[in-house]
Input
Amino acid sequence: MKGPLRKTMTWLHTWSSILLGWLLFAIFLTGTLSYFRMEINHWMTPEAHVSVPSEHAIGIAAKRLVEVAPEAESWNITLPSERNNTLDLSWRNPGDTQRRRGPMEVLNPSTGEQIEVRETRGGDFLYRFHFELYHLPRGFSRTLVEIATMAMFIALISGIIMHRKIFSDFFMFRTKNRSLGWSDAHAVTAVLALPFHLMITFSGLILLASTLVFWGDDINRSANGGNQARGPAQVAAEPVERLPAPDLTRMLATAEHELGARVSFLLANKPMTREAEYIFFSSERDSLLGSRFGQTLTLDNDGNVREASGMFATNNQEINAVNAINGVLRTLHEARFADPLVRWLFFIAGVSGTLMVGTGSILWATKRAKRQTGQFGFELVHVLNIASISGLCIAVASYFWLNRLLPAELAVRQSWEINGFFMVWLLTLVHAAIYRHRHAWQAQLWLAGSLFVLLPALDQFTSPVGLWSALINGDWMRLSFDGMSLLIGAILLLCAGYLRQKMQKVRAQQAVKKRSSSTASGTQEVIAK
Amino acid sequence: MLSSFSKGISSPKVQVTYRTALVLIGGYALAAGLSLLAAHFSTLQGRDLRGLLYLVFFVAYTVAIILLFAINRHRQATWATLLSNGVTWGVLWLIGGLS
Output
């Protein structure tokens, strides 16, 4: 810690990032994939690929709900949108607890036919994993993730201070005459998307802030809205007078007209009663400000506007600076405002962040390889690096493969997908431990890259709708997933290729050294004779 | 025995552990105090106030960690931590921000 500022910051940068580097890599990778959470959900339910969005979806939903849940306490209708091509219905029967999810149905919005989708956690597993990990107590895992995020933020700031040529590197394109090493790869991936890394880390800190800032609970959360103002957990089942089914199609038109945006979700509380309220949610945003759930409009059973909230509300609460900053950070972190282009940009920046963390961990090991090879601590870091970087990539790819290869009717299927993910990850750890000095990196990167690159082929052969038809029908969610897989696969294969090239170079140098030393000893023998 | 004790506490490992603990705990207390100060002078309420608390806390904690690590001498770092915490919490106590 003693010495000039830059040296101190280098120490801080190294140790703040390496200790939780593996966890950070997992958070970054799964978080980056979560930008395509809906696309992953869609890809992992191939039965829903036949579904085609339709303008008549709301009518079909109303008809079906009146049929199957006329006495329900509430209805939830998720309408088809740019990122969802099915019509998803769920409802809560009288007496059900509010927190338990009620019965669900997935319909084809064009035909109204029910689609039996396979049991899967889809992209939600990766999304949850990136801030709650898996099978750990929620409070503990969130705190662990928050500590890792704090370490990452410190690493970023100290990395900026220690960097000698931060601005020149930002605008510099490295030409071919300089071979890229791990250090360059780390610096380039860090500097190119630096604003994104700072934003995503700081907003992550704020999102899970309550885990580290556990004091100050006396500040009333529900003073101007919060989670505590919930209704009773148990809904009393009282007999109520039922009215004829409302005209949801007309209500939807009213809501879309009033909101000036497409509605993606409808929550109906006490439907078909005098106290009914129909809350229409729009997920479309033209601003980073505003509430988490976008704009909402509430109508009564006769279709009259009861209440509006969000950006279009007339009685909108005053947006102050702190509220705005928090809202913007949340919206940016979750990319809720993003159109496909911005989503891809965020994804690429996320990949850059993942590479930054990965190359940082590798850099730590390569710098110490000559001095510490054979020591327990170094070997442990080396093995964990392999398993947590390339091993996790194999595990994620296997999760997608398992989704398509496991029988659709398998009991507790979603558990098997997740168990498979962890079993494969464990196998990569064992492989890394055994073959750590014999191409474990290369082998795992080749495997991970190949598994990702071949996902579109798997998609072609295991989905009821071929990729060509998806292209013609404009199923961009599925095509986005396949594009994402190809991009990740290509990066992993490039890394494997780079390692192979490097290994060949080292071998050639060793051969030349051996030859020159044997020639020299031969010459000495001749001279001696 | 005394010399081995003083040797022990002056070993690099102990010093690094001491500095890390000082920075993490001292920085946390300082950031907490500063965020409570900000909350005291703010007119915000409820969730907004909590938001302000989080923002100030994380900015202050990051700056505190960087600055306290950047000081070369351990003694200076200890004094800086104690002094900054003393001033912050003292002011907070004087203005009645702890009640």
Summary: The CA atoms of residues 383 and 432 of chain A lie 5 Å apart. The interface with chain B takes residues 1-3, 5, 8-9, 12, 150, 153-154, 157-158, 161, 202, 205-206, 209-210, 213, 215-216, 219-226, 320, 322-323, 325-326 of chain A (CB under 8 Å).
